[in-house]
Amino acid sequence: MTLDKVIPIIARAAKCQPDDVKPESELVALGLSSLDTITVLFELEETFDIDIPNEIITSIVTVGDVVDKLDELMHQS
């Protein structure tokens, strides 16, 4: 469920097709800069109505990492 919401946001930011965005895809490999990644995370915060702490941003490398962190944060709320 989380992945289904994350994929279109990342695909739009990376200017690629949603089919190209897989859980194992690295954000950098999709063409996202660190600024792009932060912009995506802001959009995800709004989409999921959560706060993503700055200290976990550096641990996010793949699409799967994004999904895992979002799931963790949503279960803490």
The total beta strand count reads: 0
CATH architecture descriptor text: Orthogonal Bundle
Number of helices: 4
Helix- and strand-based class? mainly alpha
Number of structurally distinct domains: 1
Helix fraction bin: 55-70%
* CATH fourth-tier homologous superfamily: ACP-like
Give the biggest sheet: none
Q: What is the string of SSEs from the N terminus onward? A: HHHH
The overall average pLDDT, rounded, is: 95
What shape does the CA trace take?
globular
Give the C-alpha Rg. 11 Å
Q: Span from first to last CA? A: 17 Å
Unreliable spans are: none
CATH fold topology: Non-ribosomal Peptide Synthetase Peptidyl Carrier Protein, Chain A
Q: Given this structure, which CATH class is correct?
A: Mainly Alpha
Describe the model.
- Helices cover 60% and strands 0% of the residues.
- The chain has a single domain (2-76), classed as ACP-like (Non-ribosomal Peptide Synthetase Peptidyl Carrier Protein, Chain A).
- With 77 residues, the chain is an all-alpha fold.
- The model has no long low-confidence stretch (mean pLDDT 95).
- It has helices at residues 2-14, 34-48, 54-57, 63-76.
- The two termini are 17 Å apart.
- Helix 1 (2-14) runs antiparallel to helix 2 (34-48) and helix 1 (2-14) packs across helix 4 (63-76).
- The radius of gyration is 11 Å and the shape is globular.
